[in-house]
Amino acid sequence: MEEQEMPNKAENAEKVEGIDHNADENAAGAEQLNEAVDEASETDKLKAALQDQKDKFLRLMAEFDNFRRRTAKERLELMQTAGKDVIISLLDVLDDCDRAEKQLVGSDDIAVQKEGIQLVFNKLRSTLQQKGVKAMESIGVSFDVEQHEAITEIPAPNEEMKGKVMDEVVKGYFMGDKIIRFAKVVVGK
């Protein structure tokens, strides 16, 4: 009896050895082997994707930090040199002021002195106008709290002047469309 059982075991061993467990998904146990391999590879893929996203995030943060530093540096440089262009253009006016001062000391002709000083004033106004500075016209217009600062009120000479600017103590100025200095005015009541 033992002899009969042994060949059966040997035949069974040959049969078991001849079966490729991973070749047929429908074979018993094959699904579990394939799933384990898939889970491991999917986990590796997810880990790799996570690492890739972490790298991208770190690079983006570093790039943003560099951008922030660069713009802060540029802003600081701009603030330090913002008035340079205006100052350079005003140096010509200052040169004219120096020449006018020499003429005031060396000449007694009032008409020539007035003319020279008027030329300096006109050059200053035109230089500022080229830079976008424009004087605000206030006298005779209705008082506007967005543009004017009322210093005082005086009685209006007629009904038409009530609520209007009678006098301008300090001129207001625009730079482009923005008010850079409010006009200080006297309002009729």
Characterise the protein shown here.
- Helix 3 (84-106) packs antiparallel against helix 4.
- The protein is of the alpha+beta class and 189 residues long.
- 60% of the residues lie in helices and 15% in strands.
- The chain folds into three domains: 30-81; 83-131; 134-189, Roll (Nucleotide Exchange Factor Grpe, Chain A, domain 2).
- The chain has four helices and six strands; from the N terminus they run H-H-H-H-E-E-E-E-E-E.
- It has helices at 2-18, 30-81, 84-106, 110-130, and strands at 133-135, 148-154, 165-170, 173-175, 178-181, 183-188.
- The chain is elongated.
CATH architecture of the largest domain: Roll
The stretches of 5 or more residues where confidence is low (pLDDT under 50) are none
Task: Determine the structural class based on helices, strands and strand pairing.
Answer: alpha+beta
Give the strand content. Answer: 15-25%
- How many independent structural domains? 3
* Envelope shape: elongated
Task: Give the C-level CATH assignment of the largest domain.
Answer: Mainly Beta
Number of E-state strands: 6
| Major β-sheet profile | 3 strands, antiparallel
Overall pLDDT: 82
Oligomer: single chain
Rounded radius of gyration (Å): 45 Å
SSE order in H/E notation? Answer: HHHHEEEEEE
